[in-house]
Write a structure and sequence with these properties.
Layout: H1 2-16, E1 21-25, H2 30-41, H3 44-51, H4 59-65, E2 76-83, E3 86-95, E4 102-110, H5 119-134, E5 139-145, H6 152-157, E6 161-171, E7 174-184
Parallel strand pairs: 4-5
Antiparallel strand pairs: 1-2, 2-3, 3-4, 5-7, 6-7
Helix pairs in contact: 2-4
Length: about 190
Amino acid sequence: MRSVNSVRETLQCVALNPPTVTIRLLEGAPAEMRELQRVIEEAPVYAHRITGVPPGRADAQSTYTALPDGKSYADKFVFAISREGEMVGCADLIRGHPDAATALLGLLLVSERHRREGIGSRAYALLEQYIRDWRTCHRVRIGVVRSNAEVIPFWTRLGFEPTGELKPYRYGPVASETVVFQKNLPGTP
């Protein structure tokens, strides 16, 4: 009987041990871009909510190169989010936008087959530490398109609050608005 209990206890411990999540800054190498495109294509529900169409063939390139007005590539950071070494998500971060003390998280995307595993919240914690290490940004800002409003509880659990700012949003057939959220980073001025 002791051996059965030992096996059961081991399985319970393994089930409680969360998988390792890491982030890695992408350099734009062809293999990275193929993996980034694969991850984006594994989120068709998100793409449909935001664009009204499935992910496009050039979405990885667009994610890697799109910049807000007035920013340079020195301030753009695209990350692979990996679970146990497999790329399962991505993030797009802009330093100093819309002001020097703010980091804009333009995208945090997890493959739909890996949702609800805690990967997004663990990846966000790593991104927040990356932002803190800059020592210039004291808050993080995101925009949530209302057609993708189901993610709002995720962001509020992470400490984001609506700023009250709304921006019109239009992409193809999707007409909506972007709700701006912000999180002040504890321990920063």
